[in-house]
Amino acid sequence: MNDARSSNENVIVAEGLTRVFTGRPQRGSRLRRTRHVAVDHLDLTVRAGESVGYIGANRAGKSTTIKMLVGILVPTDGRVTTAGLHPLRQRRALARRVGVVFGQRSQLWWDLPVRESFTILAAIHGLSAAQERERTAELVEMLEMGEYLATPVRQLSLGQRMRAEVAAALLHRPELLILDEPTIGLDVLSKQRLREFLVAQRREHGTTLLLTTHDMGDVERLCDRILVVDHGRLAFDGTLDGLARTVGARRELVVDLAVETPDLLDVAGTEHVRSESGGLRQRLAFDPQRTTAARVLAAVSERVEVLDLSIEEPDIEDVVREIYRATR
Amino acid sequence: MRPLPSPARNPYWRFLVAGVRGQSAYPLATLAGLTANATFGLLKGGIMGAAVDSSGGELAGYSAATMAAFVWLGQGMLGSVNFWGGSDLQNRIRTGDVAVDFLRPVSVQAAHVLTDIGKGLFALLPRGLPSVVIGLLVSHMALPPDATAYALGLVSLLIGIAVSHATVYLVATTGLWLVETRGVSVLYMSLSGFLAGLYTPVYLYPDWLLTLALCTPFPSMMQLPIDVLSGRVTGADAGQHLAVQLGWLAAVLVAGHLATRAGRRRLEVQGG
């Protein structure tokens, strides 16, 4: 029955998808209406089971695309089918098969305990009492929500609320989960937990994942395909490795050393970025394709005692900027 | 064999319950509302009572007792009907949160109207009943003459609450075109109470204004339920009141449905 779950089926197909926003002209001015092409003849196919990161600068067209995919925004031109359905005409049927989390919006009932929101959503999606119990228990356990199930949503911390939001979107076991900035504002630990959960969900249920993010960590840990959008057009479509090859997504190992040390210019597989505090802190860039943080650390430790270290990942903004530079 | 679905598994029932429970989360606000109701009830009762007295104990068919009933039943309904024109939906359209509502496999209209009716129903307990009790203590307000009048009055009251929230839903849908609809709310606020019989019975108005009022859904939200609840109309007349209310309920629901369908294509969800 659920053909879209079979692995070769396309979950999202967009052809020539376009959205133009027209703004009102300034009062008293004789200028024509302003025109902003948010999404510009976008062609996009996502297959069942894929995990796709959709990244780009602000105003690049990410959210606009997602709104059209789920039928809350009418395209100016082009066609889109999601889970084999027409998002506008078959809104309710689509809603049963898709889960959406907008990082900045809530789908929970603000004044009611978390548990109550799950009960209402279970009724909305027509789950039986047994299905509701089973699924809620599973999500509560995996997302560690047990201690705040009885708390009204308005009293939750952001991290707690986001876990509840993701659970709410997954309650009806959608075949496609769309996450718009799911980790925005979360602390490191909360991000980590959420990512681990999403990885496990995919593994167990084969859920297709489409997420927009400004966080390179989300992309690296969750996505096996990356789309970079620029001015409403696809600037890159490929794997994380491919992205790294295109823009050289290097990491930086930052080491705090026991003694002031001359610049570490010749550590194998690295490039010295800069030294601080007279050489007490040094930054070495490396390509994770060619060496590992452990190897770099070992090489440095042979020469001087390392007191502390951290690894910095490239900013998604930098990656996007590099892609834009390479493709324009 | 599948057992019959319980109402608890019906999403629309859950929306109604969510409204009731959501409202019960704010006991202090409810108490403040009751205090305001009672204060204005005393003022209104004083003014309207004096008006009846000065016209020789009878005014447009109201005696002192039925006028007191008009005042205190009206005050009691204030927490349950919406005369200020704002709503959750209005905010959600302005902020773009309405996107979440459209991403659920249910009627957006039914979800919002039922949640608001649920809030209105809850308010009958902490605001409606106490207002009537206060009215009984401070005045000789008329009560329904018999059990039938009570039953019809209750039905009329429920339809009135539904008409009110279905109309406010329609007002909020203008946001699908306008985004910012506080101006529309202000217009609604200035008209609704006046034409619904919040300040004085609409029967006191000159003919042209009474006719105008009766061409709107507003009397169905308050004046007509009060007429039935207070026993001012009974029997077939009460039935006619209910029919008028049901007609308006159907009209505003259909209009709200059409507005949702048309407006959805215009919606530009605000925010990222």
Automatic annotation (TrEMBL), chain A:
It is a peripheral membrane protein. SUPFAM superfamilies: P-loop containing nucleoside triphosphate hydrolases. Its main location: membrane. One of its GO terms (biological process) is response to antibiotic. InterPro entries: AAA+_ATPase, ABC_transporter-like_ATP-bd, ABC_transporter-like_CS, ABC_transporter_ATP-binding, P-loop_NTPase. Residues 12-256 form the ABC transporter domain. One of its GO terms (cellular component) is plasma membrane. It is found in: Cell membrane. Keywords: Antibiotic resistance, ATP-binding, Nucleotide-binding, Transport. One of its GO terms (molecular function) is ATP hydrolysis activity. This is ABC-2 type transport system ATP-binding protein. It comes from Promicromonospora thailandica. The lineage of its organism: Bacteria, Bacillati, Actinomycetota, Actinomycetes, Micrococcales.
UniProtKB/TrEMBL annotation, chain B:
The chain crosses the membrane at residues 124-143, 149-172, 184-204, 242-260. It comes from the Bacteria. Keywords: Membrane, Transmembrane, Transmembrane helix. PANTHER family: INTEGRAL MEMBRANE PROTEIN (PTHR36832:SF2), SLR1174 PROTEIN-RELATED (PTHR36832). This is ABC-2 type transport system permease protein. It comes from Promicromonospora thailandica.
